[in-house]
């Protein structure tokens, strides 16, 4: 199950990280190496912080894609493996279970909360930037 989700998510991660690496200035890496930093230090202190938004975007895309793949959960997983999307699918198909509605409400609340926190942080960033 984990391998199937990883195979499906790898293209999304590769696309976002590749886009971040395309915008990365190689002169920063060269400057770090010329100033005596090792390859590991250069990677940890120069390259990774520069491409961090692409890594986060890839992780978020992989997570969302994994939540959305009910087909993989239905056809690849054994009957004893119950993921949340599979449990929700079974709850909708077999009976009207209030846990499905509760899980849906929790997902909606988490999404709205994340968007609200993002909007507040962006507003604070914009006000500090203009001052």
Structure in words:
The chain has 131 residues and is an all-alpha fold. It has a domain at 2-78. 84% of the residues lie in helices and 0% in strands. The chain has six helices and no strands. It has helices at residues 2-22, 26-34, 39-68, 70-75, 84-94, 98-130. The protein is flat, with a radius of gyration of 21 Å.
Helical content stands at over 70%
* Spans where pLDDT lies below 50 across 5 or more residues: none
Rg, nearest Å: 21 Å
Q: Helix count, per DSSP? A: 6
| C-alpha termini separation | 51 Å
Q: What proportion strand?
A: under 5%
Mean pLDDT: 83
Order of helices and strands: HHHHHH
Main sheet summary: none
Q: Which secondary-structure class do the elements indicate?
A: mainly alpha
| Quantity of strands, as a count | 0
Shape: flat
């Amino acid at each position: 199950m984990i391998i199937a989700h990883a195979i499906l998510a790898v293209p999304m991660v590769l696309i976002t990280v590749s886009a971040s690496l395309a915008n990365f200035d190689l002169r920063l890496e060269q400057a770090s190496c010329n100033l005596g930093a090792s390859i590991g230090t250069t990677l940890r202190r120069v390259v990774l912080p520069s491409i961090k938004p692409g890594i986060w975007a890839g992780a978020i895309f992989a997570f969302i894609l994994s939540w959305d793949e009910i087909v993989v959960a239905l056809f690849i997983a054994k009957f004893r493996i119950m993921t949340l999307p599979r449990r929700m699918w079974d709850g909708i198909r077999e009976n009207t279970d209030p846990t499905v509605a509760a899980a849906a409400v929790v997902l909606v609340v988490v999404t709205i909360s994340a968007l609200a926190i993002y909007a507040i942080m962006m507003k604070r960033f914009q006000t500090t930037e203009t001052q």
